[in-house]
Design goal:
2 copies of one chain form a homodimer. Helices cover 46% and strands 20% of the residues of chain A. By secondary structure, chain A is of the alpha/beta class. The first copy, chain A, has a 5-stranded parallel β-sheet, with helices on both faces. A 4-stranded mixed β-sheet of chain A has the order 4-3-6-5. The first copy, chain A, starts with 5 loop residues before the first strand and ends with a helix. Chains A and B meet through strand 8, helix 5, strand 9, helix 7 and helix 8 of A and strand 8, helix 5, strand 9, helix 7 and helix 8 of B.
């Protein structure tokens, strides 16, 4: 059996990443989603173990010291990170796993797992990015501008990724990412066993 | 506009390559098929310009001396080759092109076009390969065995390819190859312009 593969997916605020991801899991429910460990309190509408595992700061710091995280970040007073064990378990049982993470997290995972494949979701244009960030509600202009600057900083690092998928249409973007996931199963490194299998019998 | 890409597709006799290819062109008619130039006489059922351009030996040798071929081969008394011009024209107009060629031709093209992507179509097993080669009709055993040896010699070189697609089911194999073709449009090298486009406006 082939091992599963690790797909790192990033996309700035305004890229539509969350909608694209939920389309992918709808179309390909066998793909595993990596659940982040975080120390901030649960918000309304969130469920333990869905997108996040809510853990204590003490437990998180223990995970850091025991090298149990593929990547982590401290934001203001809270930790966010990707535990290594579920990722290892998924790939060893032949399942592909998606880790949703920002550009810094992606860089950390790439160093630890050079065989991982990274995909950056891009808004189709600067104008569309601005529009999507402004359309969220009645937030003050400076909040929107801060979000826009942060999105542009992420986009400047899109070149670090293996693939770039432009989200013009959610379903097409999801299909593009599924094409990448499918194609990585077909690389010669992942298919060498079939050559041996066919030749062994002759 | 992005340039189109060159996809080299090989598969031994018994891999089902021809059926897979015709499925691909049915599903994705915008992909161009590279027409080989050959010097053998036209056979019944063949049409000029469909799979082959039938040309004279003199013209073929002129193409060799003028470096107009991406690859060529001499088999018994005839030449077979891939003219470079239609491939260049397709990719420059943004179209992807498939070149169907054997392992030797693939190696020649790879040297001339290192950016090309190569895909090897495999039979699912040795038993199935044997079965497909024997089922063709009432050919003598030695003809079948010669074909089998030649198929195995091609399979031994499948590691030279970027991707290996196992043809268990024709439609799935065609979809796998289409995934590879789609995914290659999304590599960061082919998408850099979109990063610049989004950032230029800000």
């Amino acid at each position: 059996m082939n091992k599963g593969q690790v797909f790192i997916i990033s996309g700035p605020s305004g890229s539509g990443k969350d909608t694209v991801l939920s389309q992918i899991f709808k179309k390909r429910p066998e793909i595993v989603f990596s659940i982040s460990s975080i120390t901030r309190p649960m918000r309304e509408g969130e469920t333990e173990g869905e997108k996040y595992n809510f853990i204590s700061k003490e437990r998180f710091e223990q995970m850091i010291s025991q090298n149990e995280l593929l990547e982590y970040n401290r934001y203001i007073d809270n930790y966010y990170g990707t535990p290594a064990k579920p990722v290892r378990e998924a790939t060893e049982s032949g399942k592909d796993i998606i880790i949703e993470v920002d550009v810094n997290g992606a860089a950390q995972i790439r160093r630890k797992m050079p065989q991982s494949v990274s995909i950056f979701i891009m808004p189709p244009s600067f104008g569309e990015l601005e529009r999507r960030l402004s359309c969220r509600g009645t937030e003050p202009r400076e909040v929107i501008e801060k979000r826009l600057r942060s999105a542009l900083n992420e986009i400047r690092r899109a070149e670090e990724y293996d693939y770039i998928v432009v989200n013009r249409d959610v379903s097409c973007a999801a299909d593009d990412i599924i094409s990448v996931i499918n194609s990585r199963r077909l690389t010669v490194e992942n298919q060498k066993h079939i050559i041996d299998e066919v030749l062994r019998k002759c």
